[in-house]
User: Which sequence fits this backbone?
């Protein structure tokens, strides 16, 4: 059983960290996992993405053409990945930054006004956590609590005051559940 | 010890430190800079030597000096930097002193780009520097393997008094995976008898690669070759997957090897009896193993992130007894599993030929020339 997730957005939106958090949670649950970032001559404000693969056996390719799930934190990421999500898979869209309707049949499209939710929680940097919550609300790869545990276990102690806010953000995102595609 | 989520480059650096590294000399270059960066923080913290040299030429010659003093020493770089180091590498091997090089390959030739590639195989495995010599070359395909093989590189370099190279591509350097680091070994405080440690009360040790009298050089070269035969007899390493009943064999190392693993699993799910042979030691190369396989399997597919460099070593081992086909992506592109799956299907479907060169057939397919 292998699950592939791509997290994509602008640099600075917490794209790589969201992927790392998934990876920490998977590792702590005893799973195999790979995290690989897009790297290259990047620039501030440019696009960034990472691929996370979670599996029960030795992982082969760390990159996939058709992932089971994509978190798209902005419009360019929606455009880039909308057609690559595997049939029956999940596309989580940050509707705050990608207001356009997604035209794709056969996948679960979860529109979450994540930036607005994060701002209402008092910290825009929580956008990635809202979206991660929405992903796990629709993709049974890891329990939500495993992310909360991973945050506590791997976030430096100086950031621990942010743990309750992170949990709230995850919970708010997880409320956006959709029916699976049959 | 618990597993940690670690980036390939940083894992290699920390593994070297824990293996008792005395000194690191290097110069930054993507995609291996995190390795040097990790060293720049950790080595001074531990009271060990770290120097960011003025260039790769400086770095490799500092490595040469420290190796002559009997230190556990390493450097790391990528294609363009490794090319600059070639003179020093030849001197190190010619002087028969141990050292470790980590080469995190990127797209080339020339300045190329910083994306993952395997196009420095020939340079590292078949020379690159001048003179008759062999480097021990190990190729990991996961972060855990990178850690384990880093430690092995030091042991092998010292055992055989030569340079050992950890050869990987940029994607493995940048990738994070859970892995277990070895326990911290104390740094060695005694030095080998041959080392230049100060000749007080003993005859000086002369360490040099100069043998101006040709018969002396010949003796040295033959002696080094005999030692290399011992390496060939004892240090071949591979990992096999689904090989027991395989009729077709994919051969790939490093990242190309693990991408091929996904393809082999998918092909197995379609009922194709295919296995994967992933060479871990590229030098010594598992030639005998491949030669024996040629007696029992129907055909080989070599897959690399180059235009077919290891391909020639596989062809030599198979010696025209079975068809060998090739699939590569080049210039900084990592293949997806479905591309290799398609090649496995083609292999299983046939017809195959012993005629011509697999690289030419591959090139024709890539460029739509047929």
Assistant:
């Amino acid at each position: 059983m292998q699950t592939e997730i791509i997290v994509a957005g602008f640099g600075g939106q917490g794209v790589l960290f969201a992927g790392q958090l998934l990876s920490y949670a998977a590792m702590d649950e005893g799973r195999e996992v790979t995290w690989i970032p897009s790297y290259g001559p990047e620039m501030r404000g440019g696009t960034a993405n990472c691929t996370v693969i979670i599996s029960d056996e030795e992982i082969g390719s760390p990159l996939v053409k058709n992932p089971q799930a994509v978190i798209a934190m902005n419009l360019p990421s929606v455009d880039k990945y909308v057609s690559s999500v595997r049939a029956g898979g999940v596309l989580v869209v940050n509707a705050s930054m990608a207001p356009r309707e997604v035209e794709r049949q056969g996948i679960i499209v979860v529109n979450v006004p994540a930036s607005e939710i994060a701002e209402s929680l008092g910290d825009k940097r929580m956008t990635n956590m809202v979206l991660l919550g929405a992903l796990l609300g629709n993709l049974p790869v890891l329990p939500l609590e495993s992310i909360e545990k991973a945050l506590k276990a791997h976030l430096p102690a100086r950031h621990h005051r942010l743990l309750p806010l992170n949990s709230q953000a995850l919970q708010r995102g997880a409320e956006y559940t959709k029916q699976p595609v049959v | 010890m618990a597993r940690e989520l670690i980036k390939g480059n940083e894992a290699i650096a920390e593994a070297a430190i824990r293996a008792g590294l005395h000194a690191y000399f290097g110069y930054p270059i993507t995609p291996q800079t995190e390795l040097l960066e990790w060293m720049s923080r950790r080595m001074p913290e531990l009271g060990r030597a770290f120097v960011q040299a003025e260039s790769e030429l400086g770095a490799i010659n500092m490595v040469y000096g420290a190796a002559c003093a009997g230190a556990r020493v390493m450097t790391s770089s990528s294609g363009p930097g490794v090319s600059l180091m070639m003179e020093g590498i030849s001197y190190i091997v010619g002087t028969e002193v141990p050292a470790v090089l980590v080469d995190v390959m990127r797209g080339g030739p020339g300045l190329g780009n910083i994306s993952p590639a395997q196009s420095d195989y020939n340079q590292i495995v078949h020379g690159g520097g001048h003179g008759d010599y062999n480097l021990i070359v190990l190729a990991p395909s996961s972060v855990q393997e990178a850690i384990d093989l880093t430690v092995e590189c030091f042991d092998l370099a010292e055992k055989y008094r030569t340079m050992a190279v950890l050869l990987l591509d940029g994607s493995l350097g940048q990738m994070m995976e859970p892995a277990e680091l070895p326990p911290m070994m104390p740094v060695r405080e005694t030095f080998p008898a041959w080392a230049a440690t100060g000749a007080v009360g003993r005859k000086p040790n002369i360490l040099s690669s100069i043998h101006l009298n040709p018969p002396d050089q010949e003796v040295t070269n033959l002696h080094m070759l005999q030692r290399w035969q011992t390496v060939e007899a004892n240090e071949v390493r591979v990992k096999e997957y689904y090989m027991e009943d395989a009729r077709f064999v994919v051969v790939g190392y490093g990242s190309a090897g693990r991408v091929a693993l996904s393809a082999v699993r998918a092909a197995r799910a379609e009922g194709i009896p295919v296995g994967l042979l992933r060479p871990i030691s590229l030098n010594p190369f598992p030639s005998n193993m491949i030669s024996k396989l040629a007696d029992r399997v129907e055909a080989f597919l070599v897959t690399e992130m180059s235009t077919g460099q290891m391909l020639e070593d596989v062809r030599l081992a198979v010696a025209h007894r079975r068809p060998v086909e090739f699939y590569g992506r080049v210039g900084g592109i990592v293949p997806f599993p479905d591309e290799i799956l398609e090649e496995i299907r083609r292999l299983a479907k046939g017809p195959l030929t012993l005629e011509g060169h697999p690289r030419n057939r591959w090139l024709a397919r890539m460029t739509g020339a047929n």
Q: What stands out?
A: The mean pLDDT of chain B is 97.
